[in-house]
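Hi V.,

Quick status before I head out on leave. The structure for the redesign project is tokenized and pasted below; the design run finished overnight.
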């Protein structure tokens, strides 16, 4: 898979940080982050964790996943591995946090058994709803999930 040093906004021209909804001062976690994948143009005061294997980054097991952050971007190439991790990802999601699931873009010539519909089948029964799909750079597609309003406690 091709790896760029940064993940641009794709063909839309929208900066990636804005596209995925990162705001100033937010906490962002990158889980199973591919080498070299970054979010360029992060707003002031953002804290980014993950990516080194110690807390759910590349090669990690998901670590803390979505717990305690405003935006979690979770990368997977295999549906089987994602299915195993999904309940913990949703369980750790704060009421107003965003969970992006990223998978290799077929439009860029990559192979994966992950599809938007498969993600919905896995995640919707767990109490979240998908609200946006986007290209997360040249090599990754992403589907954004948030906790259903009726299931939020705050």
């Amino acid at each position: 898979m091709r790896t760029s040093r940064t993940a641009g906004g794709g063909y839309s021209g929208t900066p990636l940080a804005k596209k995925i909804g990162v705001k100033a001062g937010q906490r962002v976690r990158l889980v199973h982050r591919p080498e070299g994948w970054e979010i360029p143009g992060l707003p002031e005061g953002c804290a980014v964790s993950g990516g080194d294997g110690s807390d759910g980054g590349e090669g990690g097991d998901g670590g803390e996943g979505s717990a305690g952050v405003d935006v979690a971007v979770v990368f997977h190439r295999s549906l089987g591995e994602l299915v195993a991790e999904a309940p913990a990802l949703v369980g750790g999601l704060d009421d107003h946090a965003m969970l992006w699931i990223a998978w290799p873009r077929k439009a860029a010539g990559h192979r994966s058994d992950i599809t938007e519909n498969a993600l919905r089948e896995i995640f919707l029964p767990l109490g979240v709803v998908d609200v946006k799909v986007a290209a997360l750079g040249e090599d990754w597609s992403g589907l954004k999930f948030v906790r259903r309003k009726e299931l939020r406690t705050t």
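Above is the designed sequence. Residues 67 and 92 are 4 Å apart (CA to CA).

G. will cover questions while I'm gone.

Best,
W.
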